[in-house]
Amino acid sequence: MRQADQSTGFAVGEIGHLMDAKSNLKSALLPISCAVIVAGMFMSYVHLAQGGPSVWSFDRIGFFLSPLVLIVSALFLARKSRIGFVLAAIGSALAILWVFGTESRAYRNSWIALNASGNDPVLLSYLGDSLWRIVSIAVSSTTLIWAGTRLFPSTWQIRKRPANQRMWPAIAVSLISILAWFILFVSPYRQPIIVDAVAPELGILHVQKDGLTFHETRVTIYHDSRFFLIRNDRKLLRYSFMERPYEGVLDDDLRAELKAVLGLPELKRTQDKSPRALMARKGEGWYTETSTFAITAFTTENGLSPPDQLVQFFRKLENSPSSKSGPEYVVRDVCLGFCYDPKAGLGYRAENQRCGYGLDRRERCY
What we know:
This protein is an alpha+beta fold. The protein folds into two domains: 2-185, no CATH class; 202-349. The chain has helices at 2-43, 45-49, 58-76, 81-101, 110-113, 121-149, 168-185, 252-262, 308-318, 342-345, 351-354, and strands spanning 202-210, 213-221, 226-235, 240-249, 271-272, 282-289, 295-299, 324-325, 329-332, 355-357, 363-365. Helix 3 packs antiparallel against helix 4.
């Protein structure tokens, strides 16, 4: 009996230690969250110095006050927890205010910054800062909701347990908020660049879809007879893929064929502003764009076949002996390929090519 009592006491003691460890971990999570937010905000000071909200804006006030409030809240949590929770909620709200006050769907978009492509160090610097902003929002919203629920009366219960002891609602609401932010801001596909390029005389995109893989070839022809051919084999559910460019010059025969292709009546009919990507498991699409900026679509899904003359001209450019290849470069898509559409395949990838301000000064992306 004595041995059984000792075993029972040992088991109870172990359970007590585990509960204490769990309680200590929970009590440590809030200060850790505050520290993460503070670290993220301090790391963004450098980027703010390069340009940001106006001096007297609420965004900047929230940016500078948030770390200070969170530091004070962490100090209060040990002895005056209620004041600490209130300050943690306020500091987290200020951090959220700053991020969304300096965020825009069109031109200052943290999700689109993760599409920074190529090997340019300036563009790649956006990746780290934007990732910090997203993590800061995730931690801040979780901290805000959790600190707020800790202030609930003990009589408020969720599934026979005090609501102020539950952490999963804060995590669930935070994840839903991040997902909604992602869905609203990530489409259409674009990269964090601004371009002011010369409009091409003709652009042709050929897409072959096989399951999750898209085989794409784009030809862009300019008025000086130069043309650029770009190939890629991108896949859905992949964050990045490689593109290889080729450059060539039209000879007199190809120039004459180009004039005939531009006169095809089919290229003036099935025009669309932003054609949809192929959805069937297997499919093929031909897309053209001229100086009118409208895009024609000939796909297996809309039942339209491309003109033979257009296909033959495209094949000749593919096999042109004058073309020379350039170095491969990486293209990124935080939407894992699902936001990348034929318009992006035709080269419309800059923010100002997909978004703009209407007469009412509201942002619109298309």
